[in-house]
Amino acid sequence: MGKVLIIGAGGVGTVVANKVAQNSKIFTDIMLASRTKSKCDAIAADVKKRTGVSIKTAQVDADSVAELTELFKTFKPELVINVALPYQDLSIMDACLECGVNYLDTANYEPLDEAKFEYKWQWAYQDRFKKAGLTAILGCGFDPGVTSVFTAYAAKHHFDEIHYLDIVDCNAGDHGKAFATNFNPEINIREVTQKGKYWENGKWIETEPHEIHKPLNYPGIGPKESYLIYHEELESLVKNLPTLKRARFWMTFGQEYLTHLRVIQNIGMARIDEVEFNGQKIVPIQFLKAVLPNPGDLGENYTGETSIGCRIRGIKDGKERSYYVYNNCSHKAAYEETGAQGVSYTTGVPATIGAMMFFTGAWRKAGVWNVEEFNPDPFMEELNRQGLPWHEIFDGDLEV
Ligand code: NDP
Q1: Domains in the chain: boundaries
Q2: 147 lines ligand 1 (CB under 6 A)
Q3: 307 pairs with which residues across the strands?
Q4: For 178-201, what is each residue's pLDDT tens digit?
Q5: Among 147, 347, 349, residue to substitute to test ligand 1 (most atoms within 8 Å of Cβ)
Q6: Which of 204, 202, 159 is nearest to 324 (CA)?
Q7: Cα–chain-centroid distance for residue 165?
Q8: What is the fold of 146-340+388-394?
């Protein structure tokens, strides 16, 4: 029924490859392509052992539209799951338009030379995808992704109007390393060192990085210091849910992590511009990535779990109500199932479910869409089946 091309063979690509193979009734022909083919081959061999399903592999530089179109013309995928880096979003979308291929990703476009993510570049493709009759599904990981589907589900079933949204993201795992990031270090460090930003009463309010913080209690985990940061789904959610009076995003960080981050910034290792080194130009943050632990390799001794959810207040039948919907994911269980840790798992599983939604026709409409613009119900059902079960608390204390 479905011919799918996965681009990117990192932690998230590993999970997507495993999950599409587990659902081989829907994904009947699978290819994994990335910059380094040997990584695709290693993942394909592992997936074959775990599931018995064969995956084709290929080398591609996804910054090159010409290389992408050549690959698309040979393999002829119906859908591309882009789990390379945000820098490649636009070149992959261009190639999709050229070859008539549908598109899904988990992170919005970021220019390489500016640590600034926003949807304007990808939303600008709306007319071209519409005209071509192609579907583009944006931001289909956990956050963005599941958090936006959780919000759409709450709006559909539990509220007449949503007024306050707080997305809370806790990683209470321990990988045993002094410092490591849970997904691509370059993207992660660019994201968490930015200024904070949230939506209130029709406008964006900016804060200094990590200026606002407080302990929040996470189910099954307990209290963790949580920091207000800007996160990309806020941009589309405030547009698509105009009743929102306030929308914020909180993420937990340990003291050790923050101390390392401060040192990295203070000594210039988070810089994204080129510097001269021994007659060669290098970008410090890219060099840093080369010496940090590979997020894809953190899984083996990773203990603890993640807890990500939405805390929502609003009105139902004239009365105020609160609602908390969340998933907890064990790093160990994720590793045993796919060979990757929980953060890669919580991103790769929703990307696979989004692709299932496309192939089954539930999420198929010409144009460029954020996930909250689709029917949340079939996606929510599939989360329970595919390893990310969710739980609800009605009218509890949201703490926010
Ligand atoms: P990794 O760095 O582990 O993997 C990225 C992969 O993309 C690598 O295999 C890399 O190749 C490949 N790649 C990079 N550049 C190119 C290129 N020009 N052409 C082809 N392949 C390329 O990252 P993760 O797996 O941790 O993350 C993948 C994506 O998921 C990122 O965009 C990240 O932002 C997103 N993400 C989204 C989350 C969400 O909840 N929405 C959460 C976590 C991550 P090579 O191996 O050669 O370096």
Answers
A1: 2-138, 146-340+388-394
A2: no
A3: 170, 328
A4: 999 988 888 889 888 899 999 999
A5: 347
A6: 159
A7: 19
A8: Dihydrodipicolinate Reductase; domain 2 (3.30.360)
Best of 148, 181, 184 for a ligand 1 pocket test (most atoms within 8 Å of beta carbon): 184
pTM for the full model? 0.96
Instruction: Output the CA–CA distances (angstroms, integers) from residue 195 to 86, 109, 240, 258, 306, in the order listed.
Output: 19, 18, 24, 14, 24
Tens of pLDDT, residues 43-79: 999 999 999 999 999 999 999 999 999 999 999 999 9
Q: What is the pLDDT of residues 331-373, one digit of tens each?
A: 999 999 999 999 999 999 999 999 999 999 999 999 999 999 9
Q: In this structure, which topology does domain 2-138 adopt according to CATH?
A: Rossmann fold (3.40.50)
The pLDDT value recorded for residue 31 is: 98
Coil, strand or helix: which one is 321?
strand
Q: Where are the alpha helices (DSSP H) in 145-248?
A: 146-157, 185-192, 233-240
Atom number of ligand 1 nearest to Cα 289? 2
- In one-letter notation, the amino acid at residue 94 is D
